[in-house]
Amino acid sequence: MFSVVVIDKFFLLGVCAALFGSLLLGVPLWLMRSGIIQAHSAYQSTRNLHALVQIYFFLVPFILGFYIQSAPRIFETGEMLPRWVALTLPGSILAAVLFVLMPHALIPKLLLSANCFTVLAAVLLQLPKTSLEIHLRVGFFSALGLTILSCGPFWDLADSSDSLLLFWLGIVPIVLATSQQFIAGVLGGKRASPAQNAMTLVLIISSGAALLGQLTSLFCALALGAIASFAIGTGFFSALKHWQEPLGLTFILSHCWAIVGILLASFSTADAALHALALGYAVTLILGVSLRLTAWLTDTPEPSPARSITLLTLWQLFVFTRSFDGTLTLSPLMTAAASLACALALSAWAIALLGRVLAALRAQLAAIKSASHDPGQSSETSY
Residue 82 sits in a domain of what CATH number? Predict the structure, then answer.
């Protein structure tokens, strides 16, 4: 069995990557793009690095950690994933080190691809043990997302169209599959029926094909249909009753940004759509869910509702400004203020999350030390 907390190690990597990718890469790139600071000669390669860090060192560790931690609940088998999926953590760390030493080499990209493929293989091994209902609710969505993520490191992520396609077919299906657990368990919704999940999956794949063919109006219609199908199937509108609670507000805001991002793909640019979806949809969910999840797993108090809502509000200011940059005329002062909001929101989130993660690690080290002094004492296996 895994230890009570496995996800903490992945979250630690994700938090560090979020701070590096957003504050040291993303914000400076945006300021260069806005003409506030001078663009350097490596601007294009830095864009590629920024996209790679944000997807594979920030978002993906949260996804992989959640799969590993929550597999028995997600797949309803009562079984953890095979132990070899733990290799994805050192694999991610090694890939990060190699990117620093060899930023243009193939090996770190192969490692990132292998991490996603490893969890994909573990997920596929779970499917024969589960029902068709689980296949349609989680299995096929997960297989699609992890397969695309396995290919993504080799794409030109400096191209916003490629990054948008990777996000839509790689990240979105996984979010839709795993978020049903929260909607049903916490927000008063339900798990979608097999037929509804099948419809959502078909719409996701069809809209991805339209996006690949640069048929943005068709993508917009099909993608909105996928989000609507998901919302109807899960009874998502029940979340509206929880708008004053941090988790309810998190889901409401994130799905609003999903709709905005889809519309921007048709009426604005791929860059605008990508940032609305990545920052507004995915990162908003991570900010809200990760604090609650780690508080539960580490048996520590949740942040106060006022603090969580303040954090979410600050983040929305940044998401709005970054997503509509190019669509609206923004003054340098607005851009600078939004960059500050990004720094404050991410820093507050990182401090809160790291406190819980480090507390969990200290507790695990203490348990290992105690067990080493008392060989007869049994302890849970930790990754």
Answer: 1.20.210.10
